[in-house]
Design brief:
Length: 224
């Protein structure tokens, strides 16, 4: 008989994976860790079949209602839902960041925390001006990104820009999203510009999560 070992579910490691996705590990997997439990198999084929079934069962479990209920609001719910999700995360992370950390930057010449948030806000207004939904706010001029640095002011501009984006996109019909607009010296559709807006928000969300971790702030959705 050939003695083989397979790596079974380690709740500690699995919990880390779930937290990284903003999910909570179901209680059924949070107790009695089973790590490297030995099994006896008559052949390699039998071991392969057991491994395949183990993966299948884990996949089925992860698709169960117990896990689905922990998925954050907005995910998988279309553009408006995804925009709401990133909006909630951006604002929650900004609120959780200590006031003195808004001036922090990872290296000279790199945007500070407040500058990243203001960059997102300014870009949101720019995208909306491209699709013709509103003009750029008159306050936004060269250097504006660096001129607003107080936590309350930064959050106010961020929220204002995200609310404007949500309201504008919600009023667009599928047909209107197909209209042609000029964007970065090329012709595209309004729908593609809105897509760029949400992608841009998520890109810098990742940057801000890294900033937060480096300065000792835990993203609120990772605490659950």
């Amino acid at each position: 008989m050939t003695s083989l070992f397979i790596e079974l579910i380690d709740p500690v490691a699995l919990n880390a994976e779930f937290v990284g996705m903003g999910l909570a590990l179901p209680p059924v997997l949070s107790v009695d860790p089973i790590i490297r439990k030995p099994f006896e198999y008559n052949s390699t084929a039998a071991w392969c079949e057991e491994t395949r079934m183990s993966k299948l069962l884990l996949l089925l479990f992860c698709l169960s209602p117990a896990v689905a209920q922990t998925i954050p609001e907005g995910i998988g719910q279309g553009y408006d839902g995804e925009l709401k999700h990133v909006t909630n995360q951006l604002l929650a992370l900004a609120e959780a960041t200590p006031t003195d950390k808004f001036a922090w930057r990872p290296a000279p010449g790199v945007r500070s925390t407040s500058e990243v948030y203001m960059h997102i806000a300014i870009a949101n207004f720019y995208f909306l001006s491209v699709v013709g939904k509103q003009t750029m706010p008159p306050e936004i001029k060269p250097g504006f990104e660096k001129s607003v640095s107080a936590k309350a002011d930064v959050i106010s501009w961020l929220k204002r820009s995200l609310d404007a984006a949500s309201e504008a996109r919600a009023k667009e019909s599928p047909k209107e999203l197909e209209r042609k607009v000029d964007f970065l010296k090329r012709s595209t559709t309004a729908g593609d510009v809105y897509l760029r807006l949400i992608i841009h928000c998520n890109e810098h969300m990742g940057q801000l999560v890294a900033y937060a971790r480096m300065t000792g702030t835990t993203p609120p959705w990772s605490k659950d």
